[in-house]
Amino acid sequence: MGEAVARFWREIPQRYNFMGNKCGSCERIFFPPREACPFCRRKSMGKMQEVQLTGKGEVVTYTIIHVGPEEFEEQVPYPIAIIKLEEGPQITGQIVDCSIDDIHIGLKVESTFRRIQAEGYTGAIYYGYKFKKCE
Amino acid sequence: MRDVAVIGVGLTQFGELWEKSFRELIAEAGAKAILDSGISGKEVDAMYVGSMSSGRFIGQEHIGALVADASGFSFAHVPSTRVEGACASGGLAVRQGYLAVASGMHDVVVVGGIEKMNDVGGTSATETLATAADQEWEAFFGATFPGIYAMIATRHMHDYGTTREQMAQVAVKNHMNGVLNPYAQYRKEISLDAVLNATMVAYPLGLLDCSPVSDGAASIVLCAAEKAKKYTNKAVKIIAAGQASDTLALHARENICTLQATVHAAKMAYKQANLTPKDIDLAEVHDCFTIAEICAIEDLGFVKKGEGGKAIDNRITTRDGSLPVNTSGGLKAKGHPVGATGVAQVIEIALQLRGDAEKRQVPDARIGLAHNVGGSGATCTVHILEAM
Hints:
heterodimer; A: 135 residues; mainly beta; CATH 2.40.50.840; 2 domains; five-stranded antiparallel sheet; 2 helices; globular; B: 388 residues; alpha/beta; Peroxisomal Thiolase, Chain A, domain 1; nine-stranded mixed sheet; two-stranded antiparallel ribbon; 19% strand
C-alpha cells in the first residue's frame, strides 16, 4: 500500500485487540468503533463506550479469491468471508487453517491473530485478525 | 423545478483504445453531443464531468478544468465541475447537470463521463477499482472488488437458489445485445459453457461474469425542456433523478443481497415520476458483475426479491422480453470505463426513446430507466426518461 504507517498504528486497538464500541442509548455494538451511533445520532453523543469483543461468530457469506492483489498473490486461492460476530457487528476477514471445502454459510468461527500483508520484502508488516473454525 | 430534456448525445468507442488519450476521448464525446444537440458552443452555461479515479489511472486530477480546456471552453470560462462516486460518477454527473437546469440556474449544461483505464496495467486497474470498497476494513484483509460481489452471489445462491447458470445467462444475453452496438467493446456472442468454464476470479464468479477494464467517454447535452424545441426535434425528457447512499462496506449491511441504495434511489425516482416499476418499458442496469444485474432487477422492483435468477430463465429481460434490460450490451459487453458508464446508460435509453437504436431498437419504447451503482452499492443513481 505504501501509506504512512501512522494510519496503521491508529487501527491497532481494533485490529490487534478487537476493540469495538457500544451506543449508550440503544446498546447496539459497533466494530470498527463509530464516532456516533448511526441509529441514535445526537442521542449517542458522548455515550459511546469501548467494548471488548470475543472474536467469535459465524459465516454469513464467503468467496474464494483466485485472482488476488499483489500483496496476497502467494496465498491464492484463499477464502474471504463476512462474519457475524456474536455481539452483532459483521466484518470481513480471511478464513484459515481449514480446507476450502469445509467452508459454508453458518460455519462457527473464532478470530486468530495473524500477519495480513507486507509492503514488499523490506517494508512494514501489517498484522490483524483472521478466522479459524471453532474447536 | 422545471422539466429537463436530453437534447444531444455523444459516445466514443469503448474498449482498449491505446491510440487515444484521456483528453481526446472526452473532447470527442463532448463534440459529438454538442453537434447532435444543435446548440452552439457559446450557449453552454456549465459542465459536469464524472470520473472515478483519473488520479490513479492517468496521474491527473483537476479534471473539471482539464475537460473544459480540452473541449475548447477554457477561453469561454465556463464553470466545469468534476463529480466522483466510484463507478456511479457518471450517474452523479448526470444528476448534478439535471439539478443545475431544473433549478433554473442554467439553461444548457453539458455532462460528460470518462475513464481511461488501460494506461495502467491490469493489476493496477483492479487495485484502483478496489478503492471503491472500504480500504481499511475490506480490502486490507484481502477482499477484492470481484470478491465482494462474489460474496453477494454466494449468499443469493444460498437464500434464493440462484444458480451459476442463471448468472452466466446474464453475460450471454448482454453479449448478444453487444453484437448490435457499434460502440461496444465486445461485439461477439459467448456461450453458456464459455462463461461457466472461464477462469475463476472469485468463486462463484468467473472471468466472464465480470465487466472488463475499458477506455471510453460519453457526453450528453441537457436543456430546459421548454427551450428544447429551439434546438432539436429529438429531445427526450428526464422525468426523475433519484440518488441514495449506503454503508461503504458490504459487511455493514443487514441484508447482504439487497442494495438498499438502489431500493431508495428507485423509490425517490418512481415517486418523482409518479410511476411504478410496471410502467418502465426498458432499463439499463449496472451489471458490473452478472449477479449485480440479478440484484438490480429485484431491487428496482421489476421482479420480487429472490426471483431475479428466474427472470433470466423466463427470458423477461432479453431484447424481445417484456422488460428488455441492457440492450446496449450492458457493462459486460459494451464495456465499463467507470466514469463514463452512468452517462452512457442514459444515452442508450435516450437513443431507444428517440427510435435511434438501430438494430437494437425496442419497438414502442416510451419510458426507460438508467441505474448506476458505485462500489458494492454505497452510491446509486436512478434516472427515468420519457419520450417527448
